[in-house]
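# step 3/5: fold
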Amino acid sequence: MTLEASRRGFLAASAALPAGAALARVPEDRVARVAADLDKYLGFGIKHAGGPGDTACGAWLTSEIEGLGFKVEQQPVSVPYFVPERTELVCGTARASVWPQPIVVPTGPEGVTGPLVRIDGAGRPAAPLAGAVALLELPYSRYSTAIAKPVRAPIDAAFAAGARAVVVITNGPTGKVIALNADGRKPMFPGPVALLAPADAGPFLAAAIQGTSATLTVTGENGRRPAANFIGRIDRGRKSWLVVSTPRSGWTHCAGERGGGIAAWLWMARWASKAVTTHNLAFICNTGHEYENLGAAEALKATAPKPADTHFWLHLGANVASQDWHDLTGQVLPGIDTQRFLSVSPPLLPLARETFAGHVGLEAPYSSDALSAGEQIEILAAGYARVAAVFGLHRYHHVVGDDARCISAANVARTTMAFQQLVERAIKG
């Protein structure tokens, strides 16, 4: 079955499936609209910042909210890019594709060669690293960013000890490479770093025991290109603003990671443009998420309403309502992955607990003083006082295969209706 057939079939089926008694309150036409939005988003393909999918998606979303009466302002953002040519690790007869870690430091056409030296998750090498190709085996987890200390620290230590390159095995639930977010302004590491799928790692781990020589080759087109955030405003001349934001870019098709947030953002724009008359509206859509929230940081500098003028900010991040799976069998389940988190400003905790009772993963919201992530960190640091954000890491987060199987229109609709209820009550307080 093709991805297109799978995508359309799953989305159509999910629009008709019930997801518990609470979903019955979601009108069928709203679920169908969510399904259409998810289908459209998935149709743009890979969403690398500044690439064709990201650009086309931004144009579609701009057109959608302009049709609702929003006045849209584009904000240029410079983002890194890499178009791979040859990206592989070779050791004797073993050969595997690798994912170059941005911002990519290429090897040159001859590659980088040295003895394979294994490093454990604590950064301990099995042999001297001078001149080596370090093979870092991360502990099992759902990874998201190379900025995180458990990822970055052993890589930094390997280069400090003289490694010529580092290959990272991203052990996670799918056995595939987990792409890692990166600093979008400059390379994080002094030498080439590449990610290797756990499913491909066996021969290289065995070779590292013997210190066998290996060659890492990473070549391609490397540089920066233009991308764009945008903000849509409806200025009603009120004293304060309601802000709703979401990123749209990412490493893959981003169905579960970004699709739910995109569909929820459109739902909120359609609703608020008609129903919220007590506040001005600002709907922000950012690019460059995969470069450590690069787009969000730029939006906060230039286009977002000032903190003093903002009554409430809702951020719709990753895993708004992605599908759950059985790890043992790889079977997709009808329910929602519990690894999603709701973080709110402390005064909003009672309201959030009441609103999201029964919503798995979100029924136990966190104070933003205790837990925040992604763009929410940037928003809070800029001084916004009343913020709610959802984020998470579903099974296929940052993994090729984050496609239509990973998202259900019914589950997204059910979750988004709760966010609408949260906003309705939050802007009254």
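# step 4/5: annotate
The first helix runs from residue 3 to 16.
# step 5/5: archive (pending)
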